[in-house]
Amino acid sequence: MAGRVTSAKIVIAGGFGVGKTTLVGSVSEITPLTTEAIMTSAGVGVDDTRQVPGKTTTTTVAMDFGRITIDRDLILYLFGTPGQTRFWFMWDELVRGAIGAVVLVDTRRLADCFAAIDFFEHRRLPYLVAINCFDGMQYHNAQDVRDALAISSEVPVVSCDARNRESTKHVLISLVEYVLSMRRSRAVAPA
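^ that's the sequence the OP posted. Answer follows.
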């Protein structure tokens, strides 16, 4: 008899051009659904592309969606958020039913992830911080990033390469393990 399959929703968030679409695409076992649109004059003066040289033609305007089977009985559905503030009104709907979130950060632009961290902390949704190592380089260690973001010592901080499937799988597994440990802690905590 086959085991019961469990599915879970995970949100991938972070600033503009941090690699959310790339992360979902690198790990999804299906062709990811993306809502990439050509960047238009509406983004001029709003979307600062100077620090994201490769981000000049398209951007996510609604969400990215992918799926990965972690184990024969665990399927993760991934929902990538748009990074620009003008699309944040969709975040409440995207996080509905999620077990947790990945906040993807670019250490060259740490301030871009503060809003995502605040969003998840305010909603008490478990999250971890994933440092996207652009050009294969991690410029700051996990503790320095934790200190700069002023996040709790319980929140996992991991490094990854959003382009690499195995690296991205490690991030997702780390998040699931963190969420499960939080739930176990709550279950045994005195009332």
